[in-house]
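Our preliminary data section would be incomplete without showing what the modeling component actually yields. Below, a chain of 215 amino acids is followed by its predicted structure, encoded as C-alpha cells that our downstream tools consume directly.
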Amino acid sequence: MTQTLDLSPDELLTTTRTVRKRLDLEKPVPAELIRECIEVALQAPSGSNRQTWHWLVITDAEKRAVIGEYYRLAVEKYLAGSGAAGKLYADDPVRGPIQRRIGDGVAYLGERMGQVPVLVIPCLQAKNLPAGNQAGLWGSILPSAWSYCLAARARGLGTAWTTLHLNYEQEVGELLGLPEDIRQTALIPTAYTIGTDFKPAARQPLDDILHVDTW
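Predicted structure:
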C-alpha cells in the first residue's frame, strides 16, 4: 500500500477539494495507484450489497482527447447559461468573488480535460432508470465514487467531480464500448496536485441550514 499523506480523518474530509487549476498535467500517474484508490472505493455501501458498479479508467491519449472535446463543448454551453457557477450570487460581496473564481476554474478545466493523465468514469449497471425515486439506484454508486476521491486525496492526487460530459453520454459510451445497461455517473479527472496544502472551503453557517425536529 502506498504511503499516504499525514491527514486526520477530519482533515481528509474537509480538504478534499474539487481540483482544477492545480492538477499536474505533465506528471504520469501509476496505474497501481489508481487501482489502490478504486480498491478503497469498493468498500463503500451499495443497495442490497449488489455491487453492480463498474469503473472505467481512461489513459489512452486519443480517447482522453475525444472525451476532453465533448467536455469542452458541454462546458462552453454551461458557461453561456444563466446558472453557471461564475454568475451566481453576483451581487453578494462575499460569495460573488468565490463564485467567479469557480467559474474561471470550470473554464480552465474545460480547455484541458483531455490533457489530464487519468480520466475515471464510475458506472452503474441498470437496465432501466425508474421514473420515480432513483435515490436508491444512484446511492449504490455515489458513495463509492466519493470514496475514490478521498482515497486519491490521501495519496497526493487531485480530482474534480464533473458531470457535464453526460450531455454527450451516448457518444462517450460508444467511444468506450459501453453496454447499453451501463450508466455513467461522473467524469473524474485524476492527477497529481501542484502542492498538497488544500484548506477547508467557505461554507454557509451551520445554524443557517440546520433544522432539528421541524423546519
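The chain has a mean pLDDT of 96. The two ends are 46 Å apart (CA to CA). Preliminary results of this kind motivate Aim 1 of the renewal.
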